[in-house]
Write a structure and sequence with these properties.
The protein is 43% helix and 17% strand. Helix 1 runs parallel beside helix 4. It is built from 8 helices and 7 strands; from the N terminus they run αβαβαβαββααβαβα. It has a single domain, classed as 3-Layer(aba) Sandwich (Rossmann fold). The model has no long low-confidence stretch (mean pLDDT 95). By secondary structure, it is of the alpha/beta class. Bound molecules: guanosine-5'-diphosphate, magnesium ion and zinc ion (2 copies). Belongs to the SIMIBI class G3E GTPase family. HypB/HupM subfamily. Keywords: GTP-binding, Hydrolase, Metal-binding, Nickel, Nucleotide-binding, Zinc. This is Hydrogenase accessory protein HypB. Pfam families: cobW.
Length: 229
């Protein structure tokens, strides 16, 4: 969250955002859609993860993507190659997606398609390790990515993201042998502040861990259908 000159202003802002998130969540639940909010610093591997997820799961599940980027549609164009609806949202100067922007995306999805046909909406947030974690968008689960190149101290330095995450993907583990990063220390640092988080180390390059991620996705969809019906 950016420093505000008025604490009341900050509370109002987050309150308004939460109302929008509740609105989005009602849509998702009414349509039987599970929504993930995918967050990390720039370059941790969100878009590559989405590419692998779409290529592996889009036959089995009906997936749509909401792609948040400050200015370009570069990531959205990469994901459109997988033949799924990709709604691009340019946030302009904002460093995170908020619930209103995502509402624009899901209303657009509902306008162009029958939303009840979808199982999963993947939201790729703006690359930023701080602000996205504070703005709920109506998701069922928050997915944080931390690449081994970022160092094992980052969960301690940017705690909110790691406290909020339901699932942490430790990415680019194929690079770990070339670095001093200790994956066990990352896990310990995160578990200290968030004992219930699911932690899955993956490499999109070698494919290691991706099946564990796909199984987690399937289990979440199953669980949110059971809860909403
Ligand atoms: N070695 C390696 N590179 C990866 C992996 N995942 C992503 N990358 C690279 O990291 C860079 C950023 O990936 P991208 O998905 O665009 O990150 P985003 O900014 O979080 O969406 C790209 O050059 C990817 O090829 C991985 O598992 N291993
Ligand atoms: Mg990206
Ligand atoms: Zn609505
Ligand atoms: Zn910010």
């Amino acid at each position: 969250m950016h420093q505000t000159f008025d604490a009341a202003l900050e509370i109002n802002l987050l309150h308004a955002n939460q109302q929008g998130a509740d609105h989005n969540r009602e849509h998702f639940d009414q349509w039987g859609i599970t929504c993930f909010n995918i967050m990390s610093s720039p370059g941790a591997g969100k878009t590559v993860l989405l590419e692998k997820t779409l290529s592996h799961l889009s036959q089995e599940l009906k997936i749509a993507v909401i792609e948040g980027d400050m200015t370009t549609e570069l990531d959205a164009d990469r994901l459109r190659l997988y033949g799924v609806p990709v709604i691009a949202i340019n946030t302009g100067r904002s460093c995170h997606l908020d619930s209103k922007m995502v509402a624009g995306g899901i209303h657009q999805l509902a306008h162009q398609y029958n939303p009840s046909e979808f199982d999963l909406v993947l939201v790729e947030n703006v690359g930023n390790l701080v602000c996205p974690a504070e703005f709920e968008v109506g998701e069922h689960a928050k997915i944080a990515l931390l690449s081994v190149t970022e160092g094992e101290d980052k969960p301690l330095k940017y705690p909110i993201m790691f406290q909020q995450a339901d699932c942490l993907l430790i990415t680019k583990i194929d690079l770990a042998p070339y670095l001093d990063t200790d994956i066990e220390r990352i896990k310990n640092n995160v578990r200290q502040m968030n004992p219930h988080v699911t932690i899955i180390p993956i490499s999109a390059k070698t494919g290691e861990g991706l099946n564990v991620w796909f199984d987690w996705v399937r289990a979440q969809i199953h669980q949110s259908l059971v809860i909403s019906h």
